[in-house]
Amino acid sequence: METNFIHHQSAHCENGVASNLLRHNGFEISEPMIFGIGSGLFFVYIPFLQVNHAPAISYRPMPGTIFNKAAKRLGFKVKRVKFSSPKAAEKALDDNLKNNIPTGLQVGVYGLTYFPDEYRFHFNAHNCVVYGKTETDYLVSDPVMETVTTLTHQDMAKVRFAKGAFAPKGQMYYPTSIPKQAALAPAIVKGIKETCRDMLAPVPIVGVKGIRTIAKKIPQWAKKLGTKKTNHYLAQIVRMQEEIGTGGGGFRFIYAAFLQEASVILGNNQLRELSLEMTQIGDMWRDFAVNASRVYKNRSTQEDVYNTLSKEMLAIADREEIFFKKLKDVIKAY
């Protein structure tokens, strides 16, 4: 069983799956446009939830949220199903493949044998598309990979029922109703307004305030928890930023591309200017990741490194607050 599915590599798994599934069904839309309309830019710090023995940090909303919001705002429908048993999940996927329906899956990263070993760790919110099956393997279009790949039937069952936080429970999803045309402009406006609301939320663990909270925690961790644990927490920040679906810097670059597309559709040059500003903020996040990684890999010669990293992250928060206030002012006219 194999559908005529065209693989497009993308920067982030959920956006890529959404864009690829829609393109397969005749609806041409870019990854940045899905990301922006689906309000994919986000930040949350959850100190009471542990992931890989460190506080949970996310640069994205909950898995599935981006595609669901984009679907609602663009007027198409997505069916999502979770399962209580691997056998039922396998049958449902196989039935879709028999009916030539490429299907999105939420899976655990650790069991993805086609990933390099250094990228395989316990994280259960990765997304990919299955578009066919042979006697031994499933045919997989993972949007973060350059080409299509495969996963054995046994490994597919493992990744679909990985244990731990955000356990996928065999979740699969696919579009069921797609309009011939969709009004992009109002969807763009709704997506931007929600992102501004989230990033400027008056809550200490969300958005800009969440970034500030973590920035201030870094030197506190060093004093209270010691170097080893603090470095582990720094590694968590960087991993969630750079490896889990592109995270901080990469998400800013995708959002900048979205604003550039949106400026043309809405006929607004201010959005184009803000696109350039967001790219600069993305560069700041990347610089922070490099500097933080030097610390936890014990390669930094800089003195007072934890306070320095704290100030660097606070500067990012300041830039983002200014940016989202500007964006909010621009978009409120619509």
Low-confidence stretches: none
Question: What shape does the CA trace take?
Answer: globular
Strand content: 5-15%
Quantity of strands, as a count: 8
Instruction: Give the helix proportion (percent range).
Output: 40-55%
Number of helices: 11
- Listing every helix as H and every strand as E from the N terminus to the C terminus, the arrangement reads HHEEHEHEEEEHEHHHHHH
How much is the radius of gyration in Å?
Answer: 20 Å
N-to-C span: 47 Å
User: What is the makeup of the main sheet?
Assistant: 6 strands, antiparallel
How would you write the strand order of the largest sheet? 3-8-4-5-6-7
Give the overall pLDDT as a whole number: 91
Which terms summarize this structure?
334 residues, alpha+beta
SSE layout:
Elements: H1 13-24, H2 31-37, E1 44-51, E2 54-58, H3 65-74, E3 77-81, H4 86-98, E4 103-107, E5 126-133, E6 137-141, E7 149-152, H5 153-160, E8 172-177, H6 184-199, H7 207-225, H8 227-242, H9 247-266, H10 269-296, H11 305-331
Antiparallel strand pairs: 1-2, 3-8, 4-5, 4-8, 5-6, 6-7
Structural notes for this entry:
The strands form 2 sheets. The protein has a 6-stranded antiparallel beta sheet, with helices on both faces. A two-stranded antiparallel ribbon has the order 1-2. It is α+β, with helices and mostly antiparallel strands. The protein has helices at residues 13-24, 31-37, 65-74, 86-98, 153-160, 184-199, 207-225, 227-242, 247-266, 269-296, 305-331, and strands spanning 44-51, 54-58, 77-81, 103-107, 126-133, 137-141, 149-152, 172-177. The radius of gyration is 20 Å and the shape is globular. Helix 2 (31-37) crosses helix 9, helix 6 (184-199) runs antiparallel to helix 11 and helix 7 (207-225) runs antiparallel to helix 8 (227-242).
